[in-house]
Every structure is written in C-alpha cells, then in structure tokens.
Structures
1.
Amino acid sequence: MNVKKIWLVLVLLLSPIVSVELVLADRDEHEYEEEHGFFSRWYRSDSMLVEGEDSSRYREECGSCHFPYQPGFLPEASWRLVMSGLEEHFGENAELSDYETDFILNYLTQNAAETLKGEISRKVIWSIRSKQPPIRITETDFFKHEHDEIAPRVLYNNGEKIQFSNCDSCHTRAIQGAFNEHEIEIPGYGPWDD
Ligand code: HEC
Ligand code: HEC
C-alpha cells in the first residue's frame, strides 16, 4: 500500500468513531444515560461508579452508617489508614473480622484514586501530592476546592447543619457515581445553580 491508501483506510476506520463522539457530545446526557446506561458511563470518564460483586459487600459493610464513598476519592495509602483503625473509627466502632477487613481493603486499594483514570481521581491525587495521606475525603484540597463556593448559610436545613460527609444529602445521584453540578439539590435550599 502506498501512503495515500494508508491514509484513506485510516480515515474510513476512524470516521464512525468521530461521528459517535459528536452525536454523544450533542445529546442530553440524562436522556442518553437512560437509554444506554452502560455506554454513557463508559463514555463519561469522570463517573465514579464502581460495580461488581466486591462492591456490594463493600456497600453493605461500609454503607450502613454513611454513604459508601467511591474508593476513587482517596489514594491507596488513605484506605490503608482507614482500614487499620476501624475499632476507633471517627468515634464509632466499625470493626470487622480479619477476613472482611482484608476483602474490603483489597477492593478499596484495587479501585483507589491512583488506579482509576477518571478526572476526579487524577485531581484527588494531584491535590494530595507530597502531603500526608488524609483519612477523610472532605479534608482533601480537591474536596475543599470543589465545595468552597457554598456559602455557610446554605448548609443549614431547619436549623440542622448538613454534614459534608453525607455526600448523598446533596448529590442526588451519588450512589450511581454522578457528582456533576446539574444533579445537586441542597436540602432546605434547592437545586444548585452555579
Ligand atoms: C458504625 C458506623 C460506621 C461504619 C460501619 C463505618 N463508618 Fe465510616 N464513618 C463513621 C462516622 C461516624 C464518620 C464521621 C462522619 C462525619 O464526620 O460526619 C465516618 C467517616 C468516614 C470517612 C471520612 C468521611 C469524610 O469526612 O471524608 C471515611 C473515608 C469512612 N468513614 C470510611 C469507612 C469505611 C471504609 C467503612 C467500612 C470498613 C466505614 N467507614 C464504616 C461511621 C461508620
Ligand atoms: C451540602 C451539599 C453537598 C454535600 C453534602 C457534598 N457536596 Fe459535593 N458538591 C456540592 C456542590 C454545590 C458542588 C458544585 C460546586 C460548584 O458548582 O462549584 C459540588 C461539587 C462536587 C464535585 C465536583 C463535581 C464536578 O463535576 O465538578 C465532586 C466530585 C463532589 N462534589 C463530591 C462530593 C463528595 C464525594 C461528597 C461527600 C464526601 C460531597 N460532594 C458532598 C454540594 C455538596
């Protein structure tokens, strides 16, 4: 094949990919997700969804007191710290059997921020850089930066302060891994309008 022919073949091969991307970029994200859940999640690389059998055990064990945070919000070193101190876990006893602890630690480290390619995880890693690994997501510079536009008064609902650690209080589709700004509703305040 000469160079011209190689180019032609390349263009023919790539054109369907390019057009799918354009169509996707054009369509309403929600509409698309309803029709093609899996595909659009794959397409949206910033989605924090983690699926599979291991994740259901994680959700069961670590989602009973609070939202089961997606492992991609913290680096591996942070998850090791969290999992090594479960008997004194933020003032609660969240101890598990050795087997469960190993199982969940394995799940967390395999899906930790440095192993995911999504934009959120990359920003998390970058925001921690050489600092000590945090044991809270809400303590990372990434988290603080994303939430610093929320005025303190917005955080009160009927006199009660909304805790940032309850991600799903505001991110209506947090459990599906969707944290984008169009799917936020703050209790007592309403939809977030940037
Ligand atoms: C017995 C209840 C309980 C269980 C079970 C539990 N936690 Fe927690 N967890 C807490 C409390 C209480 C806090 C502090 C919440 C706050 O400050 O608003 C917390 C906070 C956290 C935070 C920090 C959240 C932030 O502020 O960024 C992480 C991370 C965390 N838990 C991980 C886990 C993991 C992993 C498991 C499962 C091994 C787990 N938790 C199981 C009670 C629990
Ligand atoms: C009090 C309501 C509230 C709570 C609770 C909350 N968030 Fe947010 N979050 C927001 C708002 C509002 C924004 C958008 C801020 C903006 O537009 O600049 C946001 C933005 C984000 C973003 C950036 C999304 C993007 O596409 O840029 C991420 C990621 C995120 N939050 C994760 C979390 C996690 C993880 C938790 C729990 C540990 C959490 N949030 C808890 C209100 C909240």
2.
Amino acid sequence: MFMIKPGFTLMCLLLLLNHAAMASYTLVYTGNLNGELEPCGCTLEGDLGGIKRQVTMIDQLRRQNPDLLFVSSGGLLIAEMPSDRIRSDYILRGMKFLNYDVIGVQARDLAFGAHFLKRYKLPFILSNAYGKPTFAYQKTLHRQSQSFTFFQWSVLPPQTLLKDPHAETMSAQKRLAKKLATAKNTGTITVVTTNLRLAAAKKILPLKNIDILIIPSRQDKFAKPVQIKNTLLLQPGARGMRLGLLQFEVRKHAQRVRIHHWQQRIISLPKTIPDSPRTKTWYTAYNAALKTDYEKQVALRKQREQGKSPYAGAEKCRACHAPEYQKWQQTRHPHAYEDLESVGKNFDPNCVACHSVGFNRPGGFLNAGLTPHLSGVQCESCHGPAQAHVDSDGKTPTGNHQWKKKQICAQCHVGIHSPSFNLETYWPKIAHGQKTGK
Ligand code: HEC
Ligand code: HEC
Ligand code: HEC
Ligand code: HEC
C-alpha cells in the first residue's frame, strides 16, 4: 500500500482535497404566489400553504442552515377586485417575515404601479425592463467561497411598458446574454427565474450560461427537476402551497463552475404546520383592514340603492351655467376616463380616483355602468359635491366653494402625474367663471 508511485499518491491527495473543498448548498425556491396570502381552507385538500405557515417553515429551515438561499420568481400580487389592493399590500408586508434573498418582478406585480412595490424595500430584481431602471438588474449572493447571481426575465405587457416591443426585447435579450456570460466566466453559479414556458425560455434565454433555470410548473404542484445539458430546470408550483428545496454541490470544470450532485425535496404546508407567532399582529391588521374596506363598500352600495348621492354630475349644471359647461366641454377633463379606458386601466382604483368624480367617497363614481354620469373630471371634481347646490337653485354653496384654485388642482396635478403643472399656464386653458371672464 505504501509502495505505490508518487504520482498516484499526488492524484489521490488532489482528489481528497477536491472532495474536502466541495461544499454543499441549499436553495429554497417558490413560484407564483398569485395573491394567495392564505388558503381559503374550504376543503382539506385545498388547505395548503399561506404566508403564516411559510414563515414557520422557513424559520425552521434557516435554523438548520442559516446559509440557505431563498428565491421567489415573483408574481406575488393579485388585482381582480377593489379589495385586492389591501391584500397585495399585506402580501408585500408579509414578505418581510419571509426575508427572501431575491424576488423577481412579474407583470402582475406591477398592477398597482412600480412605486407601489418600491415602498416595501424588498430584494426585487428585473432583468428585462426598459428605460430607467426601477429595480435591481441582478443580485449576487456569496455562500462560503461560492457566488450565486440571480436574474429575472418576465413577460411584460408590451402596450404599457415597451415603446417598441420587438427592439426592446431583442436588446434586453442581448444584454442578459452578455451579463450571464460574464458571470459564468468569473466563476459564478447563475440562476434565472422567469414566467416563460420552457419552449419560449429555450428560445429567448442562453441556457448554456444558466446553471439553474426556474420556470412555472403547469399546475400548483412542483415538478421534478430536469437536467438539460448543463442547466438544471426547476418548476415550482404556484400559490404558495409548498416550498421546493434543492441541495447541490458545485464543481469546477475547465474554469467554469457547474452544479454537481443535486437532490430535491418538496415541503408541503398543511394545516399541521403552525402559524408563525411572528405574523400574528400583521394578520390581525390585515383582517381589520379588510373589514373596514368591506363596511365602506356596503355603505357606498346602500347609499346608491337609496338613490342618495351628494354628487349631481355635470349635466345638471348645464341649465344654469351654460358658459361654464361649454368651456369645460372644450377641455381634456371630460375625456379623462376614456383615456384611462384606452390604456386598459379603468379598473385600477389607483388610477380611477383622479380620472372621475368622487371615487372612494360616498355617492361617488363606482364604474362606467353604475355611475356613467360621474366619469371623467367634471365640475364636482373641482367644486366638490353640488347636489345640495342644485336642489337649492344655487343658494347652498358648492362643497369646495372656499378652496383656493391651487388647492383644487393639487388634488390631481401632483408629482409624476403632472410634472409640468403650473397654475399660470394651466388655468388659462380651462378658465371659466365671472371673475376671470369666460
Ligand atoms: C393623483 C392623480 C392621478 C392619478 C392617481 C392618476 N392620474 Fe393620470 N393624469 C392625472 C393628471 C393630472 C393628468 C394630466 C397631466 C398633465 O397633462 O399635466 C393625467 C393624465 C393621464 C392620461 C392622459 C395622458 C395624455 O397623453 O393625454 C392618461 C392616459 C393617464 N393619466 C393614465 C393614468 C393611469 C393609467 C393611472 C394609474 C396607473 C393614472 N393616470 C393615475 C392625474 C392622475
Ligand atoms: C378643473 C377644475 C374645474 C372644473 C372641472 C370646473 N371648474 Fe368651475 N372653477 C374652477 C375654479 C378653480 C374656479 C375659480 C375661478 C376663480 O377663482 O377665478 C371656477 C369657477 C367657477 C364658477 C364661477 C365662480 C365665481 O364665483 O366666479 C362657476 C359658476 C363654475 N366654476 C362652474 C363650473 C361648472 C358648472 C363646471 C362644469 C361644467 C365647472 N365649473 C368645472 C375649477 C373648475
Ligand atoms: C338651478 C340653477 C343652478 C344649478 C342647476 C347649478 N347652479 Fe351653480 N349657481 C347657481 C346660482 C344662482 C349661483 C350664484 C350663487 C351666488 O352667487 O350666491 C351659482 C353659483 C355657483 C358657483 C360659485 C359659488 C359656489 O357655491 O361655489 C359654482 C362653483 C357653481 N355654481 C357650480 C355649480 C355646479 C358644479 C353645478 C352642477 C352640479 C351647479 N352649479 C348647478 C345656480 C345653479
Ligand atoms: C380630479 C382630478 C383633477 C383635478 C382636480 C384637476 N385636474 Fe386637470 N387634469 C386631470 C386629468 C386626469 C387630466 C388629463 C385628462 C386627459 O387628457 O385624459 C387633466 C388635464 C388638464 C389639462 C390639460 C393638459 C393639456 O396638456 O392639455 C389642463 C390644462 C388642466 N388639467 C388644468 C387643471 C387646472 C388648472 C386645475 C385646477 C383648477 C385642474 N386641472 C384640476 C385631472 C384633474
């Protein structure tokens, strides 16, 4: 045994060293949350997941392995009902407890605008947005002596985000390919999350420089990892019902590191996983916010059914204020709601408020079907509710009769919504009333 050639001993030693240097890493990953803050619990089979259980589980996994990497491919939010804004707000707050290392931004996460996401200071990345970067392009994490770089490719709605969808996509594609190549050549493990399906991902993304590709699974369940040449394909299930855990080793092949041994575990989150006590206050506040909103909606509906609204609508003003009405019709204000419709945002409460009359106020605009007489920017957007004024033949002053011009405009012409607003130049375009002449 001690007689073997020195060359062979050296090789054994090298192998041994190599083996000793081979560290093991853990990646915990999730797919689209799709607004699932918690399961409805209507059926036992469906009672899986939810942020409260996820927090319990990730806390436990981190206690076992503080070095684990935790990534979400995004798609967190939901924007189908007015109350979804509340749910989305609490989902983003809930992300703080989970303390993800990286979260991808998907189109659905932009439903309430990019600024809505920015407020929460979460580790968002987006590697194919155009224009001024709102989110980090990529994120690199170090574990032991290995670096990991994460990228996100999202299918974004062309009409709202891209000026020239084809050209923008091509240049974003080239840029990502370059970044991935650089990362690979400097010894990084690259992880790309995306909401593309596999066929599209293969076309758009340079798999040869991607170690781990995370795409959505076709259903709520996680799929088994698949190796495509050097890329390990992971397919997390949606709606936060389970967590995927990948354990792997990393090995060097001709200057490039590659995923070596890997093993996947799927952790489901049934009712038996207790809610994390850390989330208790957050969850109580969430339910309280929903209740307040619900009661507000009921009050609005009740008022509408009783036909009582403090708003009259511009048509009612016409009879006594013909010149003002005429002037108003010549401005952009009456078309504010149509313009919202033309960009498909007339169901975003975040937009409707400034493009209609009295939205979110009792008796105000609800939608184009129920309250057509209150769409667009009208007399009462500026003058305040005036039904009582109409009923009294003008004797009761309008709701905002004591407001200064500046204050009236500032309800809407603020910040990014009207960067070039200047009362001196804007008022003349809509001027009416006796004091200023017609
Ligand atoms: C705080 C009030 C406010 C909110 C909220 C708001 N807007 Fe506006 N919007 C304005 C004002 C004011 C203008 C006119 C700006 C100007 O010309 O200076 C405007 C103009 C527009 C126009 C017309 C642009 C044009 O070229 O004529 C569109 C379209 C529009 N907004 C869409 C949206 C969408 C979509 C949202 C929601 C994501 C939104 N707005 C939210 C106040 C608002
Ligand atoms: C974009 C905001 C805005 C809209 C829309 C608007 N107004 Fe005005 N209106 C004003 C402001 C501001 C004044 C105050 C002018 C001043 O102080 O010189 C004014 C003045 C008036 C006056 C004269 C008040 C006075 O004491 O001289 C009347 C009447 C009036 N508006 C009626 C209307 C009617 C009717 C409509 C709808 C057909 C309408 N306004 C739409 C902002 C608006
Ligand atoms: C039946 C006639 C009548 C109708 C309808 C009417 N007004 Fe008037 N309005 C008047 C009279 C009269 C005055 C003057 C009151 C005064 O100077 O004491 C007036 C004054 C105003 C003023 C300036 C004083 C104030 O209260 O702010 C505004 C603004 C105004 N109206 C807006 C409206 C709006 C908006 C509507 C529609 C929702 C409307 N009016 C409908 C008769 C009417
Ligand atoms: C309830 C929200 C709201 C209020 C209050 C409001 N505006 Fe506007 N304004 C808008 C919106 C929305 C548009 C864009 C309409 C469109 O083009 O779709 C707009 C457009 C305009 C435009 C046309 C801009 C252009 O380039 O043609 C002018 C001018 C203007 N507003 C002046 C004013 C002035 C002056 C005041 C205050 C007296 C005022 N607005 C109050 C929402 C508002």
3.
Amino acid sequence: MTVPSFKRPAALALGLVLGLTVAGGTALAAVDAAKVYAERHDNFKKIGMAFKTINDGLKADAPDTKAIAAQAKIISDLSGKIPSWFPKGSGPESGVKTRAKAEVWSDWATFQASAKSLQTESAKLQTIALKGDVEAIKAQTKATGKACGTCHDKFRGPEQK
Ligand code: HEC
C-alpha cells in the first residue's frame, strides 16, 4: 500500500518519535538526573557510614557484635536497591557530576550481579555477626569490602571536582 505523499512526513515523524521512545525506555520521558544523583549520593553515604561503623566497631576490645549485625542489615537492605538508583539517563552524559561510569549501563548485567554480590556478602555478615565470633566477623567484613571494591573498580570513576 502506498502512503499518500502528503501523509508521509507525519508518518516519518511519528516513527522517529516512537523509535526514540523505545530506544531510551522510560529514561527519555524525563529523568531528573540531578535529583536522581542526589538521592543516589545520599544512599551510598548511608552504605558508607554503615560500613565504616562496622569497621570502627571491630577495633573495640570487645566488639558489640549485635550492633555490627544491625549495620550489616542496613547494607544488605540498601544493596538490594542499588540498581534502582541508576535509571538510564542519570550517567555522565547527563552533565551531573556523577562518578558512575557509562559502563554501568552498557554492562548492566554485570552491574546488577555486583550489587547482588554485595547483598549476599552483607546478609552473610549479618548472620555471622549475630553468632558473635569476632574473627569470623572480621573475615566476612573483608569479603563484604571486597564486594564494594569489585564494583567500584569497574563502575566508579575518579572523584569529580
Ligand atoms: C554495584 C556496584 C557498587 C557496589 C556493590 C558498591 N558501590 Fe559504592 N558506588 C558505586 C557507584 C557507581 C558510585 C558512584 C555514584 C555516583 O557518583 O553517581 C558509588 C559511590 C559510593 C560512595 C560515594 C558517595 C558519594 O556520592 O559521595 C560511597 C561512600 C560508596 N560508594 C561506598 C560503598 C561501600 C562502602 C560499599 C560496600 C559496602 C559500596 N559502595 C558498594 C557502585 C557500587
């Protein structure tokens, strides 16, 4: 069927609009990158604080293992949400001073797996901490820190000034 020539530009334009919408997913709709980044920043700060509190706590002569378990739970609860803090369109291309690399989105499966790995390790830390064996807690804290580092090495760029 031939499209009457006067309708062609409209059809083309519509096709372009649809194409863009599909390619960008919900991102193009309107990601407020600055807002997304601010929330992401706050959430990672929470994770960072919890992890620091655990490490500081382990320096005590008699670490409060229950308190450590509670901090580990904060990390495992938050880590399950990490992927949701990275909607498409909130990366470096948005102009916000994010440290997230473009690889977060181009290698989304690995990024998700890295978040999952932190969730697994921190949940394990919580379980171990509740049992109270300080040496075992120290070892699992290391494993948890490794999960942070693995993701940062691949997906986090240098500090933005
Ligand atoms: C799945 C990947 C991933 C994991 C796992 C991860 N991070 Fe991050 N983290 C990032 C990315 C990406 C950024 C940069 C975010 C940005 O700048 O938009 C970041 C940023 C941060 C920041 C800086 C917050 C800010 O904006 O100033 C802190 C602190 C941090 N992470 C701590 C941790 C700690 C501690 C752990 C482990 C307990 C951890 N992260 C695990 C990916 C991860």
4.
Amino acid sequence: MKAIRLTACIALGLASLAMSGVQAAEKVILGSDASLTAGIPGTGPLTVEQVQEWLAEAKNHEVLDVQLPMGLALGQAQMKGLEKNPLTRAKVELGRQLYFDTRLSKDNTVSCASCHHPQEGYSRHTPTGIGIGGAKGGRNSPISYNRILSDAQFWDGRAGSLEAQAVGPIQAGIEMGNTHENAVKTLKGIPAYAMQFDKVFPGEGVTIDNVGRAIAAFERVLVTGPSPYDYQEAWSKFAGLSGDDLQDVLDDAETKADYEAAKAGASANPMSDSALRGMALFFSKEVGCSNCHVGANLADEQYHNLGIGMESKEPDYGRYVVTKVEKDKGAFKTPTIRNVAHSAPYMHDGSLLTLEDVVEHYAKGGHKNKWLSDKMVPLKLTSAQKVDLVEFMRACSGEFPAVSAARLPE
Ligand code: HEC
Ligand code: HEC
C-alpha cells in the first residue's frame, strides 16, 4: 500500500516537473513591473472574497523568470535565494502585506516599513531604528532593497539569508517586541492570511519560516531602476567610436539599434560634468572607493573597519561579535551606493548626516584604530573633487519600484 502511494507520488512529481519544463515561465523585469507590488486589485481593506479570487488564478502561482533591470542586470548571474525560495506573484504579494502589517508586532504599532519605509529610501531618517514604545537600538536602519544580490544580512552579516533575517525583527525586543508563536497565532486568526499561506505553502500554511519566505520574496523584487550612471555606462561602450569602427556599428541593424538606444538613454538621463569627474575619482586607484563599493550593486558584501564609532569607550565591534576573529573588530558590511542619496543618515551608527560628511570621513583616511582597514588612507582631495564625488553618488539613483502600502487583510 505504502509503496504504491510512494510510486504514485513520484510519478506525480515527475509529471509536474516535466510540465514546468514545457511551460515557458512568465518573464518579469524587476523594478519596472509595477503589477508585482501594486497589491491585489481593488480598494480598501482586502476581503476574503477578493483573496479567494486572487488565489484561484493559476497565473499567480507560476514561478517567475526574474530579470534584473538595466544596471543591476550585470549581477543577473549572482541572484541569491531563488532556487530555495522561488518567486511567484502570490508569494510576493503575501510578503508585501506582511511587510506593511503592524499586526506582526506586539502592540500593533510597528511594521517592517516603520524602519524601512519606501518614502525614506527603504530606511529611516533617524540615526538608529525606533521600535515599539519608542525603543531605540544601537544601529542605523539599513536599506531593504537590492537584497536579491546579497546573502548575509545585517551590518555584521549575522543572518545567513534574507529569509533568516526577516523573522528576526518580529521578536526583537527593541523592534517589534513580539514572539514568533504569537505572530503565527495572530496570522492564523486572520482568515485572508490563513488562506494565502495555505495556498502559497501547501501542506504547511502559517509557520514562522513561511513568514520569512514570503517577506524575503517581496524584498527580492524591491530593486532600483537604471540610474544616470547606468545610462552613461551603456553609452560609454559607443561614445569613443569614430571612423570605420562607428560605421561598422551603424551598418548592422542590431548594433545600430543598441547604439541609438544607448545614445538616447544617456541624453535623456544625463550625468553632470561634476558627476562624471566624480565617477572617475570613485573608480580611480588613488581614491579607490571601488575597492569596496564594487559590482552590480556597488557593494562587495565584505566587512571593513573604517573607524566609525571606534572613538567610543565601548565600541560596537560589528563583524567580530559574529566571527570572534580579531581582525574583524569594528568591521561592518559594505552598503550599496545605489540610491544612497535617499537614505541619510549614514553608516552603521547613523553618525554621518550627509554624503558630504561621508566624503570628509574618507578624505581624512577614516578614524585611526588598531583594526582600521589597510585600504583606508588619507586622500588628497580638493574641495571641488569632494563635491564631484557626492555628485557621482547622487547620479547612482534610479527609480524605486512603485509599491502599495495599502490593501492589507481586514
Ligand atoms: C525598529 C526598527 C526596525 C524594524 C521594525 C525592522 N527593522 Fe530591519 N533593520 C533595522 C536595523 C537597525 C537593522 C540593522 C541591524 C543590525 O545590523 O544589527 C535592520 C536590518 C535589516 C536588514 C538587513 C539589510 C542589510 O543590508 O544587511 C533587512 C533586509 C531588514 N532589516 C528587513 C526588515 C524586515 C523584513 C522587517 C520586518 C519583519 C524589519 N526589517 C523590521 C531596523 C528595523
Ligand atoms: C575599505 C572599504 C571601503 C572603501 C575603500 C570605501 N568604502 Fe564606503 N563603506 C564601506 C563600509 C564597510 C561602509 C559602512 C561602514 C560602517 O558603517 O561602519 C561604507 C559606507 C559608505 C557610505 C554610507 C552608506 C550608508 O548606507 O550608510 C557611503 C555613502 C560610502 N561608503 C561612500 C564611499 C566613497 C565615496 C568612497 C571613496 C571615497 C568609499 N565609500 C570608500 C567600505 C568602503
């Protein structure tokens, strides 16, 4: 009896595998497909009927073929977590609701968005996060976008995945102050949530791990669109061409179309001369920002000590607390430069208020301490060059995806 059932199961499994191989998955370009994060169609609180209708559509459960937008697309081969936690429209939408729902917190006042708000660059303009009852932590709220290119989360990388990270704040005393058991109980008691979990995670329903999976799926679609810097990069492949080389490009219909698109993109999204000079400095050997801010997301995903907060009597040792390796003392994860102009204040303790302050910190070679990164050296920058670096960072801003914070289950 058992054996027969097992065989049937395997046969079924194979059949569905074969089917998924045949079906062309829906292609979505993250960041530009607003329907992914617009919420279930309609207005006001989500009703059970609307959720039923949404869940009944097969399309919402198909695994999406995810493409990154121009710029970030250079990291297409480095996307994280999609095999273990495939993206579907229904899962992303469930994660969106959870991200904005204060009912995950102990006293119904705090959601993920309280500290990572779309209107404040998916961060908060306060030096440190402010949780339930006004509780303050010791670290600045980092951004929650472009996480699809990042494995280890938190300033010290202590969460190994976005899924692991997402369940942390729910029971952090100074953040949402809840327990996992209580959060799960609350969600089970809201019919529209219970139905979605049952359908998105068949046979499992509401569990804290599935809360993490859904929120992580939502965060993975939060990516930044092309910035003037990306348009400039695309154009730079052609900008220097002349004579026969240029003629070759224009003679071929396909390369001619690329040429014209790149030219139009750069002229519609121009970088100022100051930003162009800043770009050269940023990537130069002498200034060397790109020693650490590198790759598609302009972040190496490594840990470095810049001396931030090290003058304190009891400094935050950052990565060291996780690894207990001496050289990691005071080291923190390199954040992205993409859209960084939107998420002041800066650094793990929110101690630098503006991008100008950040550049000053680098110009003086960081703050001396025993564990300072050997990549931190005083820079000979004129005041015009400092302005140029800031202008370049501003030119690394692209559009955020359009995300609805409304339409939560009633
Ligand atoms: C009270 C403010 C607060 C709330 C609420 C909060 N966070 Fe955070 N978040 C922070 C702070 C502060 C950090 C950095 C903590 C650290 O590094 O130790 C952080 C870190 C993160 C990171 C890591 C980003 C990176 O670059 O490594 C992600 C992702 C994130 N939070 C998502 C969430 C999600 C999802 C929720 C809701 C379940 C949430 N946060 C709730 C303040 C908050
Ligand atoms: C040695 C590696 C390294 C180099 C070189 C480097 N950075 Fe950073 N950058 C980091 C790390 C690590 C942090 C976070 C440090 C912390 O919070 O303690 C950071 C933080 C920042 C931030 C704040 C981002 C935020 O979200 O808070 C900006 C802006 C920045 N760097 C710009 C630059 C510029 C401009 C240069 C070149 C002048 C540069 N960086 C050179 C590693 C580096």
